[in-house]
TrEMBL record, chains A, B, C:
<comment type="similarity">
    <text>Belongs to the metallo-dependent hydrolases superfamily. Uronate isomerase family.</text>
</comment>
<comment type="pathway">
    <text>Carbohydrate metabolism; pentose and glucuronate interconversion.</text>
</comment>
<dbReference type="GO" id="GO:0008880">
    <property type="term" value="F:glucuronate isomerase activity"/>
</dbReference>
<protein>
    <recommendedName>
        <fullName>Uronate isomerase</fullName>
        <ecNumber>5.3.1.12</ecNumber>
    </recommendedName>
</protein>
<dbReference type="InterPro" id="IPR003766">
    <property type="entry name" value="Uronate_isomerase"/>
</dbReference>
<keyword id="KW-0413">Isomerase</keyword>
<dbReference type="Pfam" id="PF02614">
    <property type="entry name" value="UxaC"/>
</dbReference>
<dbReference type="InterPro" id="IPR032466">
    <property type="entry name" value="Metal_Hydrolase"/>
</dbReference>
Length: 468, 468, 468
């Protein structure tokens, strides 16, 4: 069985403090403002995972990348495979057992052990010898009514959860799910217009823009129409429960073009006739437009920039995106955000949440900026950083400069449903660990520490993501 | 009451070591080689702070920036306000109480709690409910003779303190203060010629140069005269007690121009006719001149480079400089210091103290360089880094490469008088914490640890800043 | 006497775990896949160090740089001196005693104390008062049979050790040493072709290329011949026991030139007529060739890039290379390795071990890349980072992203023979310290922790460096 004190500090007195702090939040419901679980899992009244591999391996690039690093072919894990058979699924799970030792020290190991124990009640050690039988046990469980996705959402005590959706989605699945009194949480879509903002990178961009216009009910083939169409879709998403727009580009610059230039480049882009540099110029201008729209419609902006997406073209060609080969790039926030912050940073009603995988910007840029600008919040550790050591470093780097009120609260950002409670619990334990250190240092009273804990999982994210 | 063991390690055995180490330095006098307290506070035989807000909030951008990040307008804190009334001051202090929770985890919270307790004997928790009464208590105290600035300097056991001064200042206030047997410390001015070295950035630079010439008694409107004028001012400052010149530019390059080019650009600059790039070229040449002058006059050089000064133009326009919106920039030391170090780095009589807010240069550049070059010292954690976690990281990153003898010793760099003993005490406690870890690791004997402690507050800074 | 628990965690329960973990590896033999000890020390059946200064100071730039930072002239330490007398040697050793305090907090202090105690049985504290007598004691010891280098190799339990050799070396000393049943370890040469790959930087490059051709038995003065010559030398080294090629350039780019361009530039280079930029182009092309050759001959590639070699020209001119003035440069891995990894990163038989002194790439680039690509391994902390705090940070930054199986295992990279067992022991203790934290966190079972320990010193490096 997983230990009740896992991830707490080793020093006994500090551990006692951490226990008390953790007890404040252990059973509080989960707020998940950003993630990638498909809405269908929630809409379907009785959705069950086909098998343990569909649940734990194939869709979770956190898991598949480590096996890939050991020389396993992604196709053997079901990645990009149609008609992956039951036999193949079991084999994939056994591969996980075989290579389990490669996960030592990674959060995937911790999460998986935790999920086996807390969700499936399996406490025997996972590994090459037990993977097969554990597959069978979970497989049986998954057939049971208490393992439908909705039952899991209830069991996991999820209060709010956001998907990430196609900009043109009519969101009727969200509406129907929320209208269903049987669905135990509040479900929100999220607005993610990346492809429209990248005229150079997006394949057949002009066609995408035309479809956007059709859905938005306006001719989007001019810059003015395009902008209005995106504005309408933002409002549509907001009316259907969205609280945020999410953005992931190579940088966060918001340089505006002149009217003449933007119209000229837009036309060229529609004709499929722009350079990469012109694509960047348009994207930065379009992104600036999103920032302006946020002043009006009030959607929170979350940004996940500075990534080498699809670093590996071989695997991309064979298996597609999201295979674990999105590699962090150097981040640049202070220089690139300047014009945005100079214009809107002092507006407390504008919420801009900045994520990074480049830890060097924590103490040099994001902490100092968030400790000055009311609109700026520092996003929780993302992707490779959603791990015990990096989470502790995040607190270490940022709180002295910006305190706790300018943190986003935990973001699981996952498509692995069973990992959601584990990831949130991991973060709660680590928050307790960090805060217990402040209490042990006599920098904070235990009472204030408890308030920091509660706020970190409830009023904090409620405020940042405007949930009330 | 603040806890006697605050900031010490949690592990009981290590904490015992830290206690012993700290005891070595707890009561040693304070050496403050660089800071921003106005000389008038010391010159006036009976200067009293007008009220707690003038003491703790208005002039301290560490404090005001956090409230600003919560949406408070700087003018409500007295920033840039003439005739800030007693009522407004009390309201500002109550705002601090109201937003006190936003300071959790920041050093400002720790310092303030510490100052309330150790300076004013106030041990009730500060917060929204107590801010008003605490204001009144402090306000009463501040009227008392034992709360004149001079009485505080004595109480704080300050042995040496440096102000930062106008290059043209005749320093008679320093002279008179030092001549007064009643003043309990040694008071030094510091030479800070930044504006003269930035012909592009400085408004009305030619006029400033003319004034420089008048004070220096030489026509400074040619490059040769300008250089001689600065040389004379350096010597003047040294004769009046200065131990260092302080510099803060975008970079630390020392590229020299040819005689022809420097004379040509100087003329253009006097005519107000240079580009930003030409301004940078002149500034690097002028900075190289400062380095050469230091070889002769022996003033220590301290550099605080790589900052986006006045990042927020809105607030700058309304409230001026030093409002907490100086944001760290990426640092570059190894490349940019090469020509300087190649020329003068092997001269042990030349002391160059490099500060940074970009922690990435600690282990990559400053530690290795200070561990080779006799002239290079690594400045104490600065501005956003003057906090418990960053101070521990500073030791962690640098001492393995450069040991303890190449550290500057603590620099408070503040205009907040009451925070000076607290900041130094914080650093002494954290030094004890770090060194106790080395002793607990059996890497260092307790006796050597005690010597490291004592030297870190006495012979270390005395040597680095040539105080003897 | 050095403490049995040195470097273990302070918390008693965690320390107990660390003790158990360390016990697993304490007595396991040493694998040293990369270092700089001269082969002559091993070939000679009865090589003895001339005196303690030759053993501990003169050839060890880790030691000399700290004294240099205190103003000591390198010549007084024997650096670059022929006919350094016994008297001068003793004086150098006394200087080490005099400046011993400057080493506090550095690994050099820890290693030296450890070596004195464990190799020479000297347990009195080293320092200004004892340096002279300790010199004499060691000097006596060094004459004894049990202090021949071979006896030390045996005492140190070194199982595998690699030197770093001239590309044209016929390696007969290695062959003879390995053939000698009296030599207690496996001795490998390493292929280091840097100078041939740097046509601009290498003095008299054309002449070096001609000599390469002579040794390789082929006209190397054309690009085709040059490439074939290097290929032959790689194979020659492999046949004589080499397991790796080692490379240290300003970057790790592998941009290929067209056939026409490479032939044209090669000719120009042979004529001594290329620009620095052309030199870089050729070097990147040549480096790409090395990568291709590795696909065929299977030599592991280790890279030590991004260094300002010989930062200090004054000392370089007087004392030559390797004097402690190789300063870390900013690293760039994700961008620069892309083409290499896209081509060969998915080949599990290709082993590429990336070292760095820029810790910012650990969590941002190397961890994520090693956690995806089978061919990529993260090299142990190098040069300034081979220290307790940086080693702990290395585990902290990388293992959550890449686990333990993608680490290189410890690399001592030294020419200081007596420091080899101490450095390996230091790393074993610190690995135990880090892993004990995972066990204490309940993230890892003690049994798995023990396996991580054993693998980190045996099967890990055996796999990475293809020793079996």
């Amino acid at each position: 069985m997983v230990n009740a004190d896992r991830l707490f500090p080793a020093d006994p007195a500090t551990r006692d403090i951490a226990r008390e702090l953790y007890a404040e939040v252990k059973d509080l419901p989960i707020i998940s403002p950003h993630g990638h679980v498909p809405v269908e899992w929630f809409h379907d009244k009785d959705y069950h995972f086909a098998n343990p591999t569909e649940l734990f391996i194939t869709p979770d690039h956190y898991v598949t990348r480590i096996m890939h690093s050991q020389g396993v072919d992604l196709k053997d894990l079901g990645v990009g495979q149609k008609n992956f058979t039951e036999e193949q699924s079991k084999h994939a799970f056994e591969l996980l057992g075989k290579y389990w030792y490669a996960y030592v020290g990674t959060p995937m190991q911790y999460w998986f052990d935790d999920e086996l124990s807390t969700v499936f009640g399996i406490d025997k050690p996972f590994g090459p010898d037990t993977a097969g039988e554990i597959y069978d046990e979970i497989n049986d469980d998954l057939k049971q009514p208490e393992f439908s996705t909705r039952a899991l959402v209830k069991k996991f005590n999820i209060e709010f959860i956001s998907t990430t959706d196609d900009t043109l989605d009519d969101l009727h699945l969200h509406d129907e799910t929320n209208a269903d009194p049987d669905f135990p949480a509040r479900l929100a879509p999220a607005f993610r217009p990346d492809l429209y903002l990248e005229p150079y990178k997006t394949a057949n961009w002009a066609h995408e823009v035309e479809k956007l216009g059709e859905v938005a009910g306006i001719d989007a083939t001019t810059y003015a129409g395009f902008t209005e169409a995106l504005r309408r879709r933002r409002v549509y998403f907001k009316e259907h429960g969205a609280v945020l727009s999410d953005h992931s580009h190579a940088d966060v610059r918001t340089d505006r073009l002149s009217d003449t230039e933007v119209n000229r480049l837009f036309k060229q882009a529609m004709a499929g006739n722009i350079t990469p540099e012109e694509g960047d110029k348009l994207r930065r201008h379009f992104f600036a437009d999103q920032v302006e729209m946020a002043q009006e419609d009030g959607l929170v902006m979350t940004v996940h920039p500075h990534v080498h997406r699809d670093y590996d073209p071989q695997n991309l060609a064979q298996y597609g995106v999201n295979i674990g080969a999105d590699i962090p790039a150097k981040a640049e926030y202070a220089v690139d955000l300047k014009s945005l912050l100079n214009k809107y940073g002092n507006n407390p009603d504008f919420h801009f949440v900045a994520f990074t995988m480049d830890e060097t910007v924590y103490s040099r840029e994001l902490g100092p900026l968030a400790g000055f600008y009311p609109s700026l919040y520092v996003g929780a550790p993302w992707w490779f950083l959603d791990s015990p050591e990096p989470i502790l470093r995040y607190f270490d780097y940022i709180t002295t400069a910006a305190g706790f009120t300018k943190l986003s609260g935990f973001i699981d950002d996952t498509r692995a449903l069973c990992s959601i409670p584990t990831r949130h619990d991991t973060n709660r334990r680590l928050t307790a660990r960090f805060v217990s250190g402040l209490v042990a240092d006599h920098r904070l009273s235990l009472e204030d520490g408890k308030k920091v804990m509660r706020d970190s999982v409830q009023s904090g994210p409620r405020h940042v993501f405007k949930l009330d």
